Predict the structure of Peptide chain release factor 2.
Amino acid sequence: MAEIDFPAEIRALRATYDSIAQVSDVDSLRREIAELSEKAGVPDLWDDPAAAQVVTSQLSHRQSELERLTTLAGRIDDLEVLVELGQEAGDEDSLAEAGTELASIRSSLEQLEVVTLLSGEYDEREAVVTIRSGAGGVDAADFAEMLMRMYLRWAERRGYPTKVMDTSYAEEAGIKSATFEVNAPYAFGTLSVEAGTHRLVRISPFDNQGRRQTSFAAVEVIPLIEQTDSIEIPDNEIRVDVFRSSGPGGQSVNTTDSAVRLTHIPTGIVVSMQNEKSQIQNRAAAMRVLQSRLLLLKKEQEDAEKKALAGDIKASWGDQMRSYVLNPYQMVKDLRTNHEVGNTSAVLDGDIDAFIDAGIRWRADSRKTEA
């Protein structure tokens, strides 16, 4: 095993930490925490539960962000002390422990560095993810369900709460579409790099002749609307349809017309919700998602106007951003970043952090090039 140059490695850790702390603006972070703490301490805060939730959520996030920074600074200091003591005493066990801690701190800094790249207008928001099956028949529906499980498992690994809001099951297997929330700070900024067309290549379990099948699914990620957002939708621009919720195979799971479908007439955007217990709850959830989509559409239109002279290329159906190949070999490859992994089972079980991190770095580099 090669000997570690601890002084050089620790200097590198400190340099990386200092650049992250500068971007994070620790002094500003502390001031923001003080202001939010003052708001959270107001006696009548919970007279407006929605506003109170925003304040407490922001406070918790900012405190966690500061704690991560201060904890890492302390770990680097402790590492330096451990190395000095180990070298003075010639203690190989302590130096081996220091080597392990060095790798752990480096990994933590890399993850924190990725967060500093999430500087988009809505990146701090929670996310609403919609997955739709595309070309490929029953295999595509099955693939859409596989992707849904992958993202829910990813969120579970990170301790992020999720809420499935709507699921439209396919007749034979899988899903036609599904919508779910990921309720964690920066969930939108993090998952937005997953938006696009995903492709699966495998021996179809639904083909009696065992032929290889290529199928597609689309992933949409939008920021969750907040109380402070001003997206007013006139009643005459919305068509409301109600229907009965259904489960796999069309089996009725609700005997009342509690499911709601909202159609925004000017844009043609359709949002369905059926997983809440009442029509009122489903309508409220659908309206929130519709507002979120219109908010993102407004931002995209503003960006498109700015890029009109340079041209804005939109990905068309079939222009996949990631391929999941299960046969004739095992490989998941992102076609934007060229990041690839041979352990397809781990990826489909939610181990996608490396793909997300690579995507965030790729997006940041792309924005620099455009600027």
